[in-house]
Known about the structure:
This protein is an alpha/beta fold.
Amino acid sequence: MRIVTTPALDWITERPVPLDHAGPTDRAFDPIDEAWLARSMIERFEAVAARFPDRIAVDDGAIRLTYAELRARAYDLAHRLEGMVGPAEPIAAIIPGTAVYPIALLAAFALGRPLTPVDVTHPLARRAAILAEAQPKLALTAEGFELEPELLDAATPRLSIRADGPLPDAPAGPPPPAPESALAGIAFTSGSTGRAKGLAYYQRDIFRVVAEHVNSLHINEDDVILSLASLGAGGNLDVLSALLTGGKVRMLDIKSAGIGETLRVLGEEGVTLLSMIPLVFRTLFSQAGAGEAFRTVRAITTGGDRLSGADLTLFRTTLQPTAHIRATQGSTETGVVFNWLVPRDFVVADNVTAPSGYLGMGKAVALVTPETQSDGVKEGDFLVRSAHMAAGAWQDGRLTPGPFQADPDDPTRKIFDTGDIVRQRPDGLFEYVGRRDRQIKILGLRADPGEVETILRKAPGVEDVVVIPRRTEGEAVLIAYIRPLDLHAPPDPAALRLAVQAEAPPHMVPAEVRLLPMIPRLPNFKPDFVALEMLDRQNRPAPAAAPVALAGAETSQVQAAVETSWTAVLGSASLAEGKPFDESGGDSLKALQLVLNLEQRLKTKLPFDIIDRAMTPSVLASRIAAVLSGEPLDQDDGRPLVFLCPGVGGDEPRMADLRRELADRFAMRVIAYPGIERPAAELTDREGILRAAMAQIQTTAPTGPIRLCAYSAGGAVAFELARRLKAGGREIAALTLIDCRPEIGSHGRAGLFEMQHMRARAAENGLGGLLQDRLVGLLIHLQAFDLLRALVFWRSRHEAHRGAYTRQMVLTHAHGRAFLGWTAGSYDGPLDLIVAEQEKGRDALPPDLGWASHVQTVNRFGLPATHWGLLNPPIRERVVEVLRKTLA
């Protein structure tokens, strides 16, 4: 931290325009003015709850709470906590983003205890590091949500809470007001490994951040705020902005729900406000049907990364003409420093960064050694001075001064060196330039190379490591330089990337890991970053003219198919550079597209197991050549054999990822369903599908115990196979179904989930026009599978990737049609059942989905996810944990 002398600095203290300038100035609302800010947030909530007791305050898609119900549950919890946690003792909230969280938040504020939200979707190592640093005196969890045993010390008390069930008989009022000096919250940034970095906040300062948001956008009781941010600073702002104005907050975890469900909620539930980083908004606004989904949104708030002129154009063409865009810049230490409502007539070039805004409430900034340009713009790294920033750092369970310097002119204020470089324009607007130090932002998130170094230093075979940022025309990435302990047996770079991936957020995983015999260092033993950056520039992959073809006619055909398909799906640059699949922008949808392209060009069925994150084009070609020569990708080596029945659409990349995570324990074999090349009658023949599946099992495992696992409507296949095998005298060692019901009728059509999500994911990749084509839709509706087969073959010849998606849709619907009306019979054996507890309509079903009357016993494993989300990280990790137990 630099020591600053305030008289030498020119502090900027005035904002030239009101907060709502160019905004909804004619919209009526109850502002949070200085009179309110002199009181507490709980007093404001009391006034709102008294005014709107019967209005919906919180909705998570499954549970809705009125203001009266929320008030009763929050204060009941506060009184329960009063005797369990003392003043200034932190409470950890290890809670999913559901209606339970606002109850915990209000209870902590009312009681005057600092709440530490812990995002349950983050890696276990990150959550454990946060809790070790926070040292909570009590952990709050949602009822039914299981914590990993290693997450908390066994002596830490736990309290499970729920948002439904009977209300207290005599609703309690708020506890005695907390003192103004009481801490309200602790938020952790970075800290994904090693020492987590916590910041503590007073309630009065959180109140000011909320007030700035409310007063800028004139938030009132008619607003519905969609809360997508991780619980903590961003999530708290959404929740409190609604609850302190009479609006409704709609809780939704975008990481688990996905883009398709987010757009559905936006389009169907009257959302008016939401906040997110530009990257997420770019993704949402680029989807087919985004305009319809955003039709009720009157304003968005964005920050945390650069907002470009191209972003403004995209957002404006999707939003309603009357909607507003609010831009912000700040940090967890300072809160919002700059903000403004971008005027509708403000335009900048696509490649130019839009201004971050004017100076925020209660803030002053100073540019250190500013450089004045010819147009009057000043540029320099800047300091923030305010009485309303974080209270300090939270380390080892206590409050410390942290990264702040006391203001020598006023002991109530602090000064923070942001490390950011900004420009100040003559009109009072500020523009973000970049980071001064190694703390960089990737995808809007802070990335500390030092934290990545800490992880890599723990890896076997690593003697020394330095991580540097690589800034190119696109997004910044991290590059790791490693000095091995043994140059003759160096660590595997792919394994080192996986080590970082296991402990750090995805944006901090190095794009490349390079090995050096010696890390260049200066005489003072610090890394020579200039030398490393020069080395990085010299060693960046140069685009090759063309990949070298392999010898032989067949391998040449495979190589050509890989080159053409890889280019079509992932681009020519990554092919030329030989980049791995994940570094080329690969995901589950692109894996599906890549395999289907390859199948079309090679005219053969390929297993999805040929795809993994670290695979390069040359590795892919080798695997395909091995498959075509009859070599199995997964050798039988004594591991227990498991037969996996996928959903009715057949195998897919997410199932391959699931198998890959189980491969160390089990030999997984996928049951194949009839493909599009088979006669149309076979595609809808239930008995034929079951006979073919039975033949695959009998051929692969003619003797010995059978283990069966299935996902979605594939559970009908697995269940019928188990019954028939058991009737034939075979031992069923395991039968595990992943979110399957015991009947597929008119209200639970097979393949419905898969078709809906396939449409949504395909729309994300620009294929929505095909899948919504009237002819395809009409033929599917008429069950005209012969004509559909002909259409698939014709389109496959002309547009391989589009024809492939049509094929997948046809198979999903046809196989689903085969099992329409299926009902499970009796099975004299146990059933292990994984249930998606957040699936819409699930609360109307029994906990075991109705299986108890069909099987001997049901062992239920409920997980906090939607049906589709079960196979997506991070919930997939918990599915794998369950399968390791049930299939053993």
